[in-house]
Amino acid sequence: MKIYYATLFFCENLIARINAYENPLIDEYHISEFDRTFQNKKKGYEYKSTEDLSNIRYHKVHLNALQSAPMGTAGKIRCYPYRFTSHGILTQPQWHNDGLQRNIAQAVLNPDDGDIVILSDVDEMILNEYFDELVKLTLEKQITGLYISGHPYESYSEKLSPFTNCKISDLHFWKNEAVKPSVGGIITAINEKNTKKGGLMSVIQLEDDEQNIDVVAFPSSWQEYKEFVKIGLACVIEGRLDAREQLIPDKIIPIDGLELRAQRYVKIIVNVNNNLNIKDFIRALNSCKGKAKVILELQTDDEAGIFALNNCSVEPETLNQSLCSILPPESFKIA
Q1: pTM score of the predicted model
Q2: How far apart are alpha carbons 21 and 17 in whole angstroms?
């Protein structure tokens, strides 16, 4: 088995060197550089060879040659060199980073079955601390179709859960407009795209142990998130669902920033077959005021309802004692 890393190069040589040194498991880095930018400006080739790194393979891509090729393909590289404006006017060539990157990788690599090919921009390389685990889990999924060692989210669930009020699978049920859903997961894919106005946006895939969702970061927010959002990052995302059931983020908070920047939540699951007295329940919550917002799940034998108690914040450490004063311990659970 070989591990290949295929990437485009835009003046990020130092980052490429650092990542190559940090990830000795990668057999070959394939770096492709265009001689022109997306704005169609000539820049020449700026990559500086690294003699002490034998696993780097450098490929020069001459965009003029691609542009003059017939629409559709140039060798093994599929290219889309033109686009039309809304008025039907043919504009300058638009070189789509993600599409060309993947097709150039297809042209220069010859992977065998079972090899791993990682496609990424140089400045979006997988964080080294997650690399070994992701490679192991990728192999498991390729061979068996399952995560034998457990889903990668499970390693972070305990730290992420106190700062989430919803699972990805429950997002489409969220109806509370006063409280925005916050979900936790791991970034498993990043797909940058150019907008019609020339801005750079991204579609990020967030995955937990049950489901995944596309998170759409538009140019105004992607500029901020791009600095720290990498494949393998565990994080909490707060936002809203759009009409396509994609998550539009208001905040993306990495796991190491949750304590300082994220709202803490505590979930109380109550079996209402045990004659819950609402006034006593609210009084018990008010007796242990704190900073964690309350998510209340009321269950019967047949169904359940989940509510965000907007005006109620508690101290999780003393919550169990307060609830035990009004409810049998077996009738509720704090998650």
Answers
A1: 0.60
A2: 6
